[in-house]
Amino acid sequence: MRVVDLATRPDLLDPALSLGDVGGPFIYQGASGRLITGERFRRLWARYFLIALDDDGTPMARALAVPLAYPAPDRTELPDHGWDQAIEWAAHDLLDGRAPNALCALEVVIAPHLRGTGLAAPMLTALKARAAETGLRKLIVSVRPIGKEAEPKVPMPEYAARRRPDGLLADRWLRTHERLGARVVKVCPFAVTLAGSLADWHDWTGVKLQDGENLVPGAIAPVHASTEYDTATYVEPNVWMEHPM
User: What is the pTM (predicted TM-score) of this model?
Assistant: First the structure.
C-alpha cells in the first residue's frame, strides 16, 4: 500500500471520493458537512487528504482531516458538538489566520470490497505521521462507532463504555483507535446535527418518515420527524478520542 496526498495527486480527487461515505450520505447535508467539499480540500487542506493506492495505482482508501487550534485560550476542552464544531473551528482558524497546533480526523473510508481487511489502522497511522510532519502536536477524532448503527436507540455513554472480556473496547472502530494508543476523552452528544423537510429526508435516504422516531440506513441514532411541521431532525452522538504523537 502506498499513501499519497491530494496536494501531489489532485487527479485522484474524484476516484477517492467515489469510495463511499461514512454512514449515510445524509451526514454531509448539514452546514458543517457542506463546508468540507472535495474542492475546498483541494484548495485549503490538500496535505491532509490522504489516499491509499494499490499496486495498480487505484485508490483503496481515503482519510480526511483538518488542522485547527486546540487547545487554545478560548478552547480549553473538546466540544460537545464534536465533528460539526471541529469543522467550524478549522474554518474560523483559516479566516482569522490562526496557526493550528492539532489535527482533527474527519473520516476514514475504505473501498467497499476491502472493508474489514485492516486498512483503517494504517490510514490513521498515516494521519498521525502527517500531523507530526507538519508540526502539529496531537491527533483528535470525533469517532463514530461503527457498530452503533445496529443499536441506534442505545444511549452513547452506555454503548461506548462496553468492553470485551480482554478489556478492550467492544466497538470495532473505537477499538482500532484504542489499539493505536488513543484514549477516550468524552462522549460528544451533539457531534452531527442536521434538519430538513420530510421531502429532503426522502431524497437523502429513500425513507418516507413518520411522526416520531424513525430509523434510517446509515444512522446511529433515530431521526425525529413531525408531519405537522414538515421537519425532521437528526442529532448524532460521537466519542472524542485523542491519539498520542
Answer: 0.96
Please name every residue paired with 49 in a beta bridge, in sequence order, or none if there are none. Answer: 64
Q: Where are the domains of the chain?
A: 2-195+237-243
Are the beta carbons of 225 and 210 closer than 8 angstroms?
A: yes
Give the integer Cα–Cα distance in Å for 237 and 115.
23
The CA-to-CA distance between both ends of the chain, in Å, stands at: 22
- Among 241, 66, 69, which residue's Cα sits nearest to residue 171? 241
> How far apart are alpha carbons 126 and 53 in whole angstroms?
13
Residue 76 CA, chain-centre distance (Å), reads 21
Tell me which residue of 243, 198, 189 sits closest to 221, measured CA to CA. Answer: 189
- Decide: 221 and 229 in contact? Cβ < 8 Å: no
Rounded distance between C-alpha atoms, residue 88 and residue 94, angstroms: 10
Q: How confident is the model at residue 28 (pLDDT cuts 50, 70, 90)?
A: very high
C-alpha cell at 230: 414538515
Domain 2-195+237-243: CATH superfamily, name plus number = Gcn5-related N-acetyltransferase (GNAT) (3.40.630.30)
Helix (H), strand (E) counts: the chain: 8, 9
Model confidence at 23, in pLDDT bands (50, 70, 90)? confident
